[in-house]
Amino acid sequence: MPVRSRGAFSILLAGAVAAGATTLSACGAQDAAAAAPAASSPASTAKSQEPGLTLADPTGPYTVGRDSLHLVDKDRRDPWVPKAGHRELMVSMYYPAHKKTGKTAPYMSAKGAQAFLEEMGLEVPAKTLAGTKTHARTGARAASGKFPLVVLSPGFKTPGATLTGLAEDLTSRGNVVAVVDHAYEAAGVSFPGKGILPCAACGKVGPTTFQPAAEGRAKDITFTLDRLLSRSSPWKHSGMVDKNKVGMAGHSLGGASTAATMEKDSRVRAGVNMDGPFINAGKSTSLSGRPFMMLGTKADRSPGNDTTWDTAWNQLEGWKRWATLTGAEHMSFTDLAPLAGQLGADDPEGLPGKRAAEITRDYVGAFFDQQLHGKHAPLLDRPGKTNPEVTLQHHAPQNASPRS
After folding, report:
1. Strand 147-153, strand 136-138: pairing
2. What stretches of 114-240 adopt beta strand conformation (E)?
3. Calpha distance 52→316 (Å, rounded)
4. How many CA atoms lie within 13 A of 333 on its CB side?
5. Cα 152–157–163 angle (5° rounding)?
6. pLDDT by 10-residue block (mean), the chain, 404 residues
7. Residue 215 and residue 281: Cα distance in Å, rounded?
8. Angle, to 10 degrees, between the axis of helix 253-264 and the axis of helix 210-228?
9. How far apart are alpha carbons 111 and 194 in whole angstroms?
10. Engineered SS bond to 130: which of 14, 75, 113, 355, CB 3.0-4.6 Å?
C-alpha cells in the first residue's frame, strides 16, 4: 500500500523536539526517518513558546460525553498473538450529553502517549501529546432522545485517540460515536488486566497481508455492533442509539475496513473512506447501493492515481462522492495534522493542519448529516468558494432524488 511521505507536518509535534524530529510513518509508508529542523525554523520557535495543544471546538449544539468499553470476542482468537487468547477491543463511546456535567476527559494517558511515540521513533515528551485539551467529558449525563451511531476506525499503528477531534465534532452534531481500538494493531492502548499492549502487528502488514488485516477488522466491527445493538448491550447508554441508523468512517486501514465491513454487514447504511485503499475490486464493492464517500489526498488518491479507488468508484452503485484535497498528506485526516500545525510544523507548501481538520470535519459531518439525519448538505453538491482546496466528483443514480 504505497503512501508517499511528504512535507513538514508529518513531523508529529516537531515543535516539542529539542534535537530534531522523526517523520511519522503510515501504513505501508517508509519507516520513520530523521529530520532535524534548523535553529531558526518555525518548529524551533514553537518549541521555545511551548504552547499547550488543544483540539478545535466542536461545531454542533451538544456537549460531548465519553465512556470506555472493553469487549472480548470469545469466538475468535487474536489473529496477531494467538497465544494471548480471545480477540479484545477497546471502544471509546462518545455521546450527546447535558452541559456542565462530568469532567474533562484526557486525550491519552502519559504511558499510552509514551508507547505510541516510541513505536513511531519520535523524540517528543509524552506529556506534550497526552496533555492535549479535549472537549469530551467523562461521567457526563446523557442527553435524552435517539441518535444515529457512527463507528470510527483508526489507521494502522495509530490509536483511536488520533480521531478524537472528529469523534467530538460528530457527537456534538447529534450522533453516538464508537471509536474502536483493535488489540496489537497500535501502540498506546491500554487493556484491562494487561496494560498497554505492544503493536505486534507492526511490520507484519504489507501488500500481501493488508487484505486479511482489513477483513479481520471488519469482523471486529461486526462483533462490536452485535454487542452495542443487542438487548444485553454492555454500554449503559445503549438506549440512546437508533439501531436503524448506523454509519462508519475510517482512516487508512480503517478506511479500507469501512468498505470491507459494509460488504458483509448490511446494518452499516453509509460509509466514508479517508485515504485508505480498497481491498476488493469485485461486485461486492457496489455495497448494494448504499451511500459512500471517498475522501483523499490529491497526490495519492485522486482519479488515476490509485487503481483501487478508480475501480471502487466505478463499482459503487448508490449515492457517492469522491473528494480530493490539494496539499493534504496521509495524516491530514487525523488529529496529528492540527496538533503539529499548532507547534509550527505545517508544510509551507502544503495544506495547513488546522485547515485539513476543518475540511475533514465539515465533509464527514455533512455526509452523516445527510445520510443518517436526512438533512440535505449543499457542501456535498459543490465545494463552493469557501473550499478551494477540494475537488469533488459526483454521481447521481437514475433512481435518486433530485437533491442527490
Report:
1. unpaired
2. 136-138, 147-153, 176-182, 190-191, 195-196
3. 43
4. 32
5. 30
6. 39 33 33 32 40 91 98 97 96 97 96 91 84 97 97 95 98 98 95 95 82 94 98 97 98 96 96 93 78 96 92 93 96 94 88 97 98 96 90 65 38
7. 14
8. 60
9. 13
10. 113
Contact 21, 122 (CB under 8 A): yes
Residue 271 three-state SS = strand
The Cα–Cα gap between 396 and 384 comes to 19
Place of cell 445527510: 370
Are 249 and 272 in contact by the 8 Å Cβ rule? The answer is yes
One-letter amino acid for residue 372 of the chain: L
What cell does 230 get?
Answer: 443487542
Q: What is the spatial distance between Cα 68 and Cα 71, in angstroms, rounded to a whole number? A: 10
Residue 136: strand, helix, or coil: strand
Cα 71 from Cα 230, distance rounded (Å): 13
Contact 309, 296 (CB under 8 A): yes
The whole-angstrom separation of Cα 325 and Cα 331 is 12
pTM (predicted TM-score): 0.87
Distances (CA, A) of 96 to 34, 176, 181: 42, 7, 21
Query: How far apart are the C-alpha atoms of 7 and 341, rounded to whole Å?
Result: 12
**Cβ 51 vs Cβ 27: under 8 Å:** no
Within its chain, how far is the Cα of 83 from the centroid? 29
Residues 133-172, buried b or exposed e (16+ Cβ, 10 A)?
A: ebbbbeebebbeeebbbbbbbbbbbbbbbbbbbbbbbbbb
**H helical segments located in 82-202:** 110-120, 126-130, 164-172
